[in-house]
Write a structure and sequence with these properties.
The protein is mostly helical. It has one domain. It has 6 helices and 3 strands; from the N terminus they run ααβββαααα. A 3-stranded mixed β-sheet has the order 1-3-2. Strand 2 and strand 3 form a beta hairpin. The radius of gyration is 16 Å and the shape is globular. InterPro entries: EpmC (IPR007411). This is Elongation factor P hydroxylase. GO terms for molecular function: translation elongation factor activity. Keywords: Elongation factor, Protein biosynthesis. Pfam families: EpmC.
Length: 188
C-alpha cells in the first residue's frame, strides 16, 4: 500500500480549488495571486503598492500550482521582490554538475510540494526537471526530499507553508497533513 493510499479518504483538489485556497489565505495579507494558464511558470512581483504579486503556474496543472507555491513559501521577503525570486535556473538539458546543484536547491520546495500534494489529495512525483538530459531524480535527491519532509513532520513547517498546508487539509478533510506515515520513501 502506498503512502497516498494510507491517508484517510478525502477529496482531490483541482487547480481552481488550489487557487481559491491560496487566495483565501494569502491574497489580502501578502497581496499575492496565483494565476494559471502560463506557458512557463514565473513569479512576477509588482512595484505598485496597490497591485498584486503573481505566481503564474503552467496551464491548468495542479502540480505546477503546488510546486510554484512551494517556491513562494521558501522565498523570503527580499526574494519575493525579485522576478522568479532572483533564482538561478538552467533550462532542461542541464549537465550532471548543473543537475546536482539543481537538486540541492530543490529539496525544500519539493518537500513542501509533497506535503501540499498530500493535503490537496493529490499524488506527488519528485521532479528532476531535466528530460532532455535523460537524468531522472537521483536516489540521493529522493532521500533528501523524504528526510526533509520527515523533519517538517517532526518539527513543523515554516508559517506560510503551514498556513497553506492546513488550509488545503481543511478543504479536503485530511486531519493531519504532517502525519509521517503518509510519506514513504518508496513512493518516490
Amino acid at each position: 500500500m502506498s503512502a497516498f493510499e494510507k491517508a484517510p479518504a478525502h477529496c482531490t483538489l483541482q487547480h481552481l480549488d488550489i487557487e481559491a485556497v491560496f487566495h483565501q489565505v494569502f491574497e489580502s495579507s501578502f497581496r499575492t495571486r496565483l494565476v494559471g494558464g502560463g506557458d512557463e511558470p514565473i513569479y512576477r512581483p509588482t512595484e505598485d503598492p496597490l497591485g498584486y504579486h503573481e505566481i503564474v503556474y503552467t496551464r491548468d496543472y495542479a502540480a505546477s500550482a503546488l510546486h510554484e507555491i512551494a517556491h513562494w513559501c521558501v522565498a523570503g521577503p527580499e526574494r519575493r521582490q525579485l522576478e522568479d525570486y532572483g533564482y538561478w535556473y538552467a533550462p532542461d538539458g542541464r549537465s550532471a554538475d548543473q543537475q546536482a546543484l539543481f537538486e540541492r536547491l530543490e529539496v525544500k520546495p519539493q518537500a513542501f510540494e509533497w506535503i501540499f500534494s498530500m493535503a490537496a489529495g493529490r499524488k506527488f512525483r519528485v521532479s528532476a526537471d531535466n528530460l532532455e538530459a535523460a537524468l531522472g531524480a537521483s536516489d540521493g535527491f529522493k532521500d533528501a526530499v523524504h528526510l526533509q519532509v520527515l523533519d517538517y513532520c517532526r518539527l513543523g513547517l515554516p508559517p506560510r507553508a503551514d498556513l497553506f498546508a492546513q488550509a488545503l487539509a481543511n478543504k479536503t478533510g485530511l486531519c493531519n497533513p504532517l502525519n509521517p506515515a503518509y510519506f514513504c520513501r518508496d513512493a518516490l
